Amino acid sequence: MAVWGSGYVATKVGLQYAPPFTFLTLRFGFGLAFLAAIVLVWRPRWPTSGSEWGHLAAAGLLMHAVQLGASHYAQYLGMSAGVTALVISAQPLLTALIASRWLHARLAPAQWMGIFIGLAGVALVVWHKVDIREVTSGSLAATLVALVGVTAATLYQKTFCPNADLKAAAVVQFGASLAVLAPLAVAVEGFPVIWSGELLASIAFLVIFASFLAVSALHVLMRHGEATRVTSMMYLPPIFAVVLEAAMFHVVPSGLTLAGIAVTCAGVAMTVWSRR
Question: Nearest-CA neighbor of 208 among 35, 85, 1, 49?
Answer without folding.
Answer: 35
